[in-house]
Design brief:
- The structure is a single chain.
- This protein is an alpha+beta fold and about 350 residues long.
- It contains nine helices and twelve strands.
- The longest helix has about 30 residues, at about 330-359.
């Protein structure tokens, strides 16, 4: 239990810090005063002031914040005690130009993608890549009827380029039975076929009929960047496809996890990887979770939802079109309403996570 908590704090903390660091660095680059840089939420357990900013560690490892002067009504006289003691130069968030504010807000999610790419490159260097090579084709399956055979390399499904075997598995797992156009290579020749996944009553999902696929590629120094990019792209596609299924009601509440569920995932993944393959593999598994969470946080924060970075960006883009900002009190009300909804949703998800644990 203690190890799970420590692993969660390290993994989630790294993702949160990268996000807030993006806001901080670009904000300071644009001359905006940073009131406080906080890791965690709730009561402060440790803090110090340096460079005109209060640096804080909070009790609950559930998030973080980079607070700018003038943002959401936070003025200099309301800033945490000690802020700007060393360096008081700079402007408030509202005094900055609209494009400077857009860059500052966008930088948080963007830095999540940078972190994901850096870690993905490291993973590609250590673990290589699983190429989309067909393994066993089940007799009478959709893949068999479509003419696929062992050793075929799937390069595209529909209009979607395929770089990993796990992408084939993902598309199969998320399939709702729609017809798929498969592009594959056999002996250097490209062929296009179609298949319709078959539904399994026992498993309650559709299958293409391919098992034991994948071929290991040991990446060279250039390929680690190529497949590092593909790795991030894979998690981006999985995230937005999962969000689309959530919106369409194709996933249940048990398929959604909050901090408690993530902590459980981190702990179980580490234990299983260590037990099966050793500590080194367990660490690589944690790095893969960092990529997953960093991409998820980046995408979620770019959604046009009030109180999130995406919601703030919407108001700034409206300002660009109108030539003047939306009245702060109106924008504040929208963000406050969004924050309330998000808090209610977070409580519900945490309750659901806890109920899954005690079942």
């Amino acid at each position: 239990m203690i190890r799970t908590i420590i692993l969660f704090i390290i993994v989630f903390g790294l993702v949160v810090i990268s996000h807030e660091l993006g806001h901080f660095l670009i904000g300071r680059k644009n001359g905006i005063r940073v009131v406080e840089f906080a890791v965690g939420m709730g009561p402060t357990i440790f803090s110090f002031t340096a460079g005109g900013t209060k640096w804080s560690l909070k009790l609950l490892p559930l998030g973080g914040a980079c607070m700018f002067e003038g943002e959401d009504g936070l003025e200099r006289e309301e800033a945490p005690e000690g802020a700007y003691a060393e360096h008081g130069e700079g402007i408030s968030f509202t005094e900055a130009g609209v494009w400077a504010r857009i860059a500052t807000v966008f930088a948080g999610p963007f830095f999540n993608f940078i972190l994901a790419f850096i870690v993905a490159v490291a993973l590609s260097a250590f673990t290589g890549a699983d190429l989309p090579v067909v393994g066993t084709v089940m007799e009478g399956s959709a893949a068999h009827e479509a003419g696929l055979a062992q050793g075929d390399v799937i390069t595209k499904i529909g209009r979607e380029p395929i770089h990993f075997y796990r992408e084939v598995s993902m598309i199969s797992a998320l399939s709702q039975g729609e017809v798929m156009e498969i592009t594959y290579e056999r002996n250097g020749e490209k062929t296009v076929t179609t298949l319709t996944p078959q539904y399994s009553e026992e498993d309650g999902r559709y299958y293409m009929g391919i098992t034991n696929g994948g071929a290991f590629l040991e990446c060279n120094p250039l390929q680690v960047f190529q497949y590092g990019f593909y790795e991030v792209e894979y998690w981006v596609k999985l995230t937005y496809k999962s969000l689309a299924m959530l919106v369409k009601g194709q996933v249940s509440k048990d398929d959604v996890s909050g901090p408690v569920g993530i902590a459980q995932l981190v702990g179980e993944s580490y234990d299983q990887a260590e037990e099966s393959y050793g500590t080194a593999y367990a660490i690589l598994t944690m790095l893969q979770i960092v990529v997953l969470l960093s991409v998820n946080l980046g995408i979620m924060n770019l959604l046009p939802i009030p109180a999130l970075d995406g919601g703030r960006l919407v108001f700034m883009l409206v300002e660009v079109v109108r030539g003047k900002p939306v009245p702060p009190e109106k924008e504040g009300m929208v963000h406050f309403a969004g924050l309330v909804v998000l808090m209610v949703l977070m409580v519900f998800i945490m309750y659901n996570d806890i109920m899954r644990l005690v079942r």
